[in-house]
Amino acid sequence: MMNRLAALTPGLPPTARRIAEFIATNAQDVVHMSVTEVAEGANASEGSVIGLCRLLGARGFQEVKLALARDLVQPIQFIHEDLAREDGTDAIISKIFRSGLQALQDTEKALNRVEVERAVAAIRAAQRVEVFGIGSAAPIAEDANYRFLRIGINSRASVDSHVQAITASLAGPEVAVLTISHSGSTQETLAATRIAKEAGATTIAITNFGKSPLLAHTDIVLNTLARETQFRTEAMTSRIAQLAIVDALIACLALADYDRALSTINSTFEVLTAKRV
Predict the structure, then answer these.
(1) Domain that holds residue 30
(2) Under 8 Å CB-to-CB from 101, ≥6 apart: which residues?
(3) pTM over 0.70
(4) Phi and psi dihedrals of 178, rounded to 5?
(5) Is residue 122 domain-shared with residue 258, that is, in the same domain?
(6) Are 164 and 137 in contact, with CB atoms under 8 Å apart?
(7) Is 5:58 a contact under the CB 8 Å cutoff?
(8) Domain count of the fold of the chain
(9) 85 belongs to a structural domain
(10) Looking at the structure, do residues 156 and 61 belong to the same domain, yes or no?
C-alpha cells in the first residue's frame, strides 16, 4: 500500500494528492483513525478520502487501513494488540483479561451520564426499538434485543444488511434505533442509521470514542473507550464495553418502569423455566 501511494501521488489532483501525502506521512496513526479524522487531517471531505481509496484499488477506507497495517504492524497484532509471538497460556490469559478490565474502567469514565438519560427517555417514548449490528456487533445487537424484550420493550434486532435497510426505511418518529458499531464506519449500519434518521427515527449509537461518519446520523451517543485498534476486521475488547453499556441501559430502563419491567420479567421467567430440564 505504501508503494502504491508513492507511485500514484505525483499524478493526483490537488485534493487527492493532499490526502495521499497525509496518509503516507502519518501512516502509523492512520491505521488507528476513522475516515472522518483522516478527512479533517487532510482538509478534505470523507467522499474524497473514499475516492482516493478506490483509486488505490480498495473498496473503501477500511480496506486501505488493513493494507497499511499489513505493511506497518506485527502480524500478531491482528489477533490482539498486547500479545507477543512467544506468549504462553498464562501470559495470553493475563493480557486478554487485563485489556478487558481496562476497557471497562475507561468506558465507565468516558460514558456520558446525560446521554444515557437521553437514551432512556427516547426508548421509553418510542413505540418500537430497532437494533442494528453487523459482524462482531451482531451478537451485541441480539443480546440487547433479548434484554429489551425481557423487560417489556417492543424490540427487534436486524443483523442482515438488507433487512436493516428495509427496517430503517420503515422507521418513523415513533421508532428509536440503537446502532452498535465499534468503528462507526461500517457501511451497512452507517447506511441503515442514516436512512432511519431521515425517516424521522431517534437514533442512538454505541460506538468507540472519537470522530466517525456514524456521528453525523446519530442523535444520542454512548461511547465505549476500548484501546484496541480499528484496523482489524473483528472487534474483541470493545464487545465487553458494549455489553456493559447495554446492561447499564437495560437496568436504567427497568428501574424507570419498574412495575412493568418486573411483571414482564416474572411472566417471561415462567415461560423460560419451562424450557429447562
Answers:
(1) 2-73
(2) none
(3) yes
(4) -110, 115
(5) yes
(6) no
(7) no
(8) 2
(9) no
(10) no
